[in-house]
């Protein structure tokens, strides 16, 4: 796997992906941040050696390199999920690539459903902790110790310094930034009423199908990471309406400018 990553990294460096300071993963319906990026290089995933290919129609599947708020950044416009048929090593492969490219911080976004009914669709939630319900670990393979410790400490998986800064930035900009626990499930089906009740009981404030594997790998690589969920629907088991995926994407797009504001300010401050 290290040889595969080295081949990918060599290819990207030949394409001038040089010394990015910050990695960014953009989630479902959250691609507008790239409009604020001074793009220097742009490559489709299917042109990058050993890279998985995004199969979800609202994930564009491009890796971008450029400058944002005075920092060199590498941006994933579209991510990978277990429900696409990938395994956890595939899903987290880009994080290992960004780590070998030299990123010092990782910013992650996702679209999620609100389990905590005090949160409303269109709100943002800063992830302060997570629950892994994906049925596996991205560290569960032979040779993982070549990348760092096998038994990675997860007592504080989301960087406290960046979380504190994001809260300050949100307050200064009049943006409500909730804090909560994110549960990551396999998908792609949405949850049943009983599953939403279970998630509430075990302490989840939001639920989605991504992020946790990438965060685990970032922690193994000792890359400080922060993550924000855009809450696209309210998961009230007592008043549950059928899900309209196009509405979820629309809500994500409408709420995204708030996420862009706080991410840009955080990048500037780093």
Automatic annotation (TrEMBL):
<dbReference type="InterPro" id="IPR011268">
    <property type="entry name" value="Purine_phosphorylase"/>
</dbReference>
<keyword id="KW-0808">Transferase</keyword>
<keyword id="KW-0328">Glycosyltransferase</keyword>
<dbReference type="Pfam" id="PF01048">
    <property type="entry name" value="PNP_UDP_1"/>
</dbReference>
<dbReference type="GO" id="GO:0004731">
    <property type="term" value="F:purine-nucleoside phosphorylase activity"/>
</dbReference>
<comment type="function">
    <text>The purine nucleoside phosphorylases catalyze the phosphorolytic breakdown of the N-glycosidic bond in the beta-(deoxy)ribonucleoside molecules, with the formation of the corresponding free purine bases and pentose-1-phosphate.</text>
</comment>
<protein>
    <recommendedName>
        <fullName>Purine nucleoside phosphorylase</fullName>
        <ecNumber>2.4.2.1</ecNumber>
    </recommendedName>
</protein>
<feature type="domain" description="Nucleoside phosphorylase">
    <location>
        <begin position="21"/>
        <end position="268"/>
    </location>
</feature>
<dbReference type="InterPro" id="IPR000845">
    <property type="entry name" value="Nucleoside_phosphorylase_d"/>
</dbReference>
<comment type="pathway">
    <text>Purine metabolism; purine nucleoside salvage.</text>
</comment>
<dbReference type="InterPro" id="IPR011270">
    <property type="entry name" value="Pur_Nuc_Pase_Ino/Guo-sp"/>
</dbReference>
<dbReference type="InterPro" id="IPR035994">
    <property type="entry name" value="Nucleoside_phosphorylase_sf"/>
</dbReference>
<comment type="similarity">
    <text>Belongs to the PNP/MTAP phosphorylase family.</text>
</comment>
